[in-house]
Predict the 3D structure of the following.
Amino acid sequence: MKSKLALFLVLIMLISTMATGCTSSQTQAPAEPPKTEDPANEPEGPAAGEPVKVGAILPLSGSAAATGVKLKYAIEVAQEIINGEHPDIALPLAETMGLPNLGNAPIQVVFSDHQGNPEIAKTEAERLIQNEKVAALVGAYQSSATKPASQSAERFKVPFVAGSSSSAALTERGLNYFTRIAPNDDMETEVFFEYLKYLNEETNADIKTIGVVFIDNEYGVHAAEMVDKWLEEKYAADGFEKVVAVKYPTDVTSVDTEVQQIKAANPDVLFHASYIGDITQFVKKYKEFEFSPKAVVNYCGGFQDTQFVVNLDKDGDFFSGGAACAPTLFSTMEVADKINELFKVKSGGENIDGPALEEFASLMVVADAINQAKSTNGDAIMEVIRTAKFDAPYFSTGAIQFDEKGQNFYSASFIVQTQGAEYEAVFPVEIQTAKPIAPFPTWTERK
Amino acid sequence: MVKNKKTLIIIIAVLAALPLIFKSDSFHNIMVLLLIYATLGEAWNIITGFAGQISFGHAAFFGIGAYTSSVLFYRFDISPWVGMVLGGIFAAMVALIISYPTFRLKGSYFAIATLAVAEIIKQLFVSWKFVEGATGISLPIVDDSWLCMEFHTTKLPYIYIALGLFAIVIFVCNYIENSKTGFYLKAIRESHEVAESIGINTTNYKTLAMVISAFISAFAGSLYAQYVLYIDPFMIFTLDISIKIVLLTVLGGIGNIYGPLIGASILIPLSEITRVQLGGTGRGIDLMIFGLLVILVACYQPKGIIGLVNKVAKKFKKEGEGNVEANS
């Protein structure tokens, strides 16, 4: 019996082995040279007609799947622009097919799903680097997934350009192969305070007391820490004061208690760090409990997802937050408008949002850097990424350039406010498409 | 017992040979995860399979191990090997402390209590600045080193560390299963009251099982942290890990030392293959297939794969005996 059992166990392991062995052999090109210890030092450049592979790690399933799919569309749009001929779009690599400096090699994006799980993000990053031989990585939206994935990229000396991950801690790790396009929550918080000061000057809002509402994960907790940091360092002197901080669990199903807690403290402004499902629940409860703060500012997350206005329609009006784009600006931003048109074909008519545009930018930057480096060598690509200034006419700032820590110092973010179920750019004044409305009308007044 | 040892040696030898035969990185990754989860399954089997106390909170001990070695390495440059041992000791101490109140509960109440304890520990780590709270710890990347347990050019060292740990654990489990303690634990599992009536100190033996189980889980946690090089409370104390441990052990065969390895040998490759092959589609198809297979096994083979093997073996034995009788 025992020997039969041993035989059975061995059989199971062998079957598993053969199955996984097959997986690997299918993804590895037979003509590949043997793996060297330092992939970055391999002589680079694809063979004629061979595509240059870039890995995109996104949450394509799990709680952020809806957002992940939109980010995938945005990256596909970038791939389409790079690989096709789009002389009508004034973007680097749009006019020609593929990467001109590499014999017009096309970019091939290999998508993978990290399910919102950091362990899977790390595993997928390694798989893409080792098996798929990607030249660079983009993604991974959730900061907690971007961290281990970029750690793996660092180990293999493969560039990782994060589009929309916002935790400031990402660029504080001293990594040499990591950069990020989105403004981090540190930068966003400063902009929020400047916006509030502007509201106090321009309207009769008289905003002083602050409430912070944040999800209990790295994104939320770090955002809340940034509020404390900026209050202590600068804005407490302007009369701002935190009166309540409400943390809610990642798997929250009802926010009644949280909203009652917020209402009891009655802050003038709420700083929200929430994903789309959570912020939708909160707004519905604010209405139910008739809680009307004077303003609400949202970190890059659920509010920026265009699903916010779909879910809430006019109940979602007067909320504001940092964003990399606003459809109302597209009429004055020709390139962004054309990108949006391509995006809408994939999304079924839905406009591109800030995080999606940032992920779009990440692939454009990577492709541009590979083209300028004339190589798929990690060090050569990173050298370009670190030193070059990339044209980004789809952002209000018009450019992307990274500082020594890898943070894009042209903060692409501005403040948008929902008015009539549309995102209007309200701050800074130079790009304003509408005047901000503050304080909020009460829920009764809205009727 | 001797036959068991021979079987175990064959299994360990096969496991040791596999990564040398199949050299793909994907396969090596699966081997590391498979061995870590099989070790966790063995640990869980001691308290649940042998002693019959259902725990849904083993991620807590796993997390304590991961955090102890990571914090010591990250803050004080102390080798993860030292952190691994200290993590085991901390986890065992925590198990000892929580065992006293929770072992006064029985059945589903104990299971709920373990869930609650794991959640409390998670919240402590989320709010604890010294361990970087919700932000988590990114372990420093150093050159390949056995001392620092970091290997970037090959996964083979991780596989053999995981295999070494698994081998020790499965022999310990085999020893416990066939020892007086193992028989006492099984007696407690079958009937708490009867075990007490024959003089077994049920609280002491259950606590001992919990402490050993926590100690082993923490070792696996330290190794996992060194492998992933990043931990945060949401990934490490998650219910998903506790459920995965339960799932693979139940699938393989609960209360049997081979069960966790069989379960892990099926679930981990299945999870990885479906995810890699189908994950990029953006529709979560891999998770659907995974869920469906788990439902099928749970519905048609509740005793696990090992139960199926035993059933088939018994059938063959009966047929063999029948043939002998007919011939005589």
